[in-house]
Amino acid sequence: MYNDPALAQRLRAPLEAALGKQNVIATEPITPSEDYAFFVEQGIPSLYMSLGGADPQKYAEAKSAGTSLPSNHSPFFAPDVAPALRTGIRSGVTVLRSLLNGGRAMNRLIKSSQSRHLT
């Protein structure tokens, strides 16, 4: 996964304001098997976000034991539903509001990204 640097930078501040600075963490690129890459190949600026949904106590216990909790593709995945939904909705609305309120800036970002993919 590769996030468009300009889009990631643009959305970082609104996400930090909505979720708390300590809850917005940049990670190294990953290579999951998602259809998401097809958008990137078309020159659409992208931002792939992962949402933590684990019960904080279970997460701390797993981390302390050197293990990991089941991921979203596991039949044993058991997120802490209410806070995960609130966080997911808050982050989604924050991103959409930021992009929709800055329509011209987003169009420039798309054109810039597409020109990089065409050369």
Provide key terms for this protein.
mainly alpha; 119 residues
Please describe what this structure looks like.
It contains 5 helices and no strands. The chain is mainly alpha-helical. Helix 1 (5-19) crosses helix 4 (81-101). The two termini are 21 Å apart. The relative contact order is 0.19.
Low-pLDDT parts are none
Classification by helices and strands:
mainly alpha
User: Helical region count?
Assistant: 5
Distance between the termini: 21 Å
Task: Tell me the fraction of residues in β-strands, as a range.
Answer: under 5%
Number of strands: 0
Major sheet size, sense and barrel closure: none
Shape, per Cα inertia axes: globular
Order of helices and strands: HHHHH
Rg, Å, rounded: 16 Å
Helix content: 55-70%
Q: Give the mean pLDDT.
A: 83
